[in-house]
Design brief:
By secondary structure, this protein is an all-beta fold. 0% of the residues lie in helices and 66% in strands. The chain has one domain. The protein has no helices and seven strands. The strands form two sheets. A four-stranded antiparallel beta sheet has the order 2-5-7-6, with no helix packed on it. Strand 3 and strand 4 form a beta hairpin.
């Protein structure tokens, strides 16, 4: 069954273990905390590590970007959230 879950993004770059096939929907604030909402299949048992990184307007981007998620304003500072490629080990 599909359901929308919320994940806190406590740092500029955050790795999340999400159910396989999760779809990021939106990026915003809830109670002053940046969060990511994702559509997931709550019956999916396989998880995958996915990395999300926020960049401020004008910040140089030194990561391989996979997809754009959204933009938020934090007291005049604009943050743009992307999913980035996981670093190879």
């Amino acid at each position: 069954m599909l359901v929308i879950h919320k994940y806190s993004l406590p740092a500029a770059e955050t790795k999340l273990s999400l159910p396989l096939g999760a779809t990021p929907l939106s990026f915003g604030f809830q109670k002053g905390v940046p969060v990511l909402w994702c559509l997931i299949n709550n019956e999916e048992k396989t998880v995958e590590d996915r990395t999300f990184r926020g960049f401020e307007t004008g910040e140089l981007i030194d990561k391989s970007l996979k997809s754009f998620i959204g933009t938020i304003s934090d007291e005049g500072i604009i943050h743009h959230l992307f999913e980035i490629e996981n670093e190879s080990r």
